């Protein structure tokens, strides 16, 4: 607003990507009030809603609950099975809105992006099986938490600051102390170094519109705990080398030991 821009809607991702934090009720209420005052719509992306690490403790509340299901014409919700059910390939998403005009428009567009009937059948079987869904989500939460703990144990050992996580599949980490200069070019160099010498791929902050160079998102849920441990150990070895050596000496031979960390075959 201060830059003279005219935002048309407020988008809030809760739980947040890439921070993995859950917004408290009063922040969400204030956000809706803020948007309403300016006559802009609010879109709540709750795609990580069921990937909270604790079942109840962390206090995720859907905007539907907070507004007592009175969303009015200007508050909308999106969710999909991509994250909580690890099924992004099925391309099934949900829009929940009470704005009739918007829904009519959307039903027109749906012709181009409708979910195929066999997939609708599969997903409705899945989501109506309460016993399975409860079992699956409990297991999923426990495994997310286990992998998160593996990840942060190593981050703490490396003394790299991170945002403590309450939900989701990633953790946002500050690698800026490793950059010789705080620029996006050095962030990119670090990113490439990790790929080339550790085969570890992290999401650089720049690709997430981060302004501070050196922030990376680590996704700890993509691989099994065994592989995660290997990835974190490789990361730790590279971090150790960066701290001890000059960047100009970081090369194939000085980092040769890193890829040796792997499965015993
Ligand atoms: C916050 C958020 N919303 C939406 C999406 C899109 O998910 P999909 O199109 O696979 O359902 C993603 C995927 O990365 C995401 O992180």
Strand order of the largest sheet: 1-2-3-4
Residue windows where pLDDT falls under 50 for at least 5 positions: none
Q: Shape from CA axes?
A: globular
- Major β-sheet, in short? 4 strands, mixed
What is the straight-line distance between the termini? 58 Å
Strand fraction equals 5-15%
Q: Specify the structural class.
A: alpha/beta
Q: Helicity, in percent?
A: 40-55%
Number of helices: 8
Rounded Rg: 21 Å
Which ligands appear in the coordinates?
pyridoxal-5'-phosphate
Using DSSP, what is the number of strands?
7
From N to C, what is the helix and strand string?
EHEHEHEHHHEHEEH
Mean pLDDT: 94
Structural features, described:
The protein is of the alpha/beta class. Helices cover 42% and strands 12% of the residues. The strands form 2 sheets. A 4-stranded mixed sheet has the order 1-2-3-4. The chain has a 3-stranded antiparallel sheet with strand order 5-7-6, covered by helices on one side. Strand 1 (9-13), helix 1 and strand 2 form a beta-alpha-beta unit. The longest helix is centred in the middle third of the chain and has 29 residues, at 130-158.
């Amino acid at each position: 607003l201060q830059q003279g821009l005219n935002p048309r809607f407020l988008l809030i991702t809760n739980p947040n990507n890439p921070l993995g934090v859950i917004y408290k009720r009063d922040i969400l209420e204030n956000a809706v009030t803020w948007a309403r005052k300016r006559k802009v719509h609010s879109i709540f992306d709750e795609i990580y809603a069921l990937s909270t690490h604790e079942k109840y403790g962390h206090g995720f509340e859907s905007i539907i609950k907070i507004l007592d299901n009175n969303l009015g014409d200007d508050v909308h919700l999106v969710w999909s099975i991509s994250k909580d059910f690890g099924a992004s390939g099925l391309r099934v998403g949900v829009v929940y809105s009470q704005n009739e005009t918007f829904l009519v428009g959307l039903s027109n567009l749906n012709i181009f992006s409708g979910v195929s009937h066999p997939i609708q059948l599969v997903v409705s079987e899945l989501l109506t099986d309460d016993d399975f869904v409860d079992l699956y989500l409990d297991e999923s939460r426990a495994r997310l938490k286990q992998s998160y703990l593996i990840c942060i144990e190593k981050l703490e050992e490396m003394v790299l600051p991170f945002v403590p996580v309450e939900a989701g599949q990633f953790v946002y980490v500050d690698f800026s102390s490793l950059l010789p200069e705080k620029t996006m070019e050095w962030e990119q160099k670090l990113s490439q170094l990790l790929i080339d010498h550790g085969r570890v791929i992290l999401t650089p902050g720049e690709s997430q519109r981060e302004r501070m160079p050196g922030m990376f998102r680590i996704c700890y849920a993509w691989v099994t705990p065994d592989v995660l441990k290997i990835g974190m150990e490789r990361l730790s070895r590279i971090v150790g080398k960066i701290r001890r050596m000059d960047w100009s000496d970081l090369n194939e031979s000085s980092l040769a030991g890193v890829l040796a960390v792997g499965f015993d075959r």
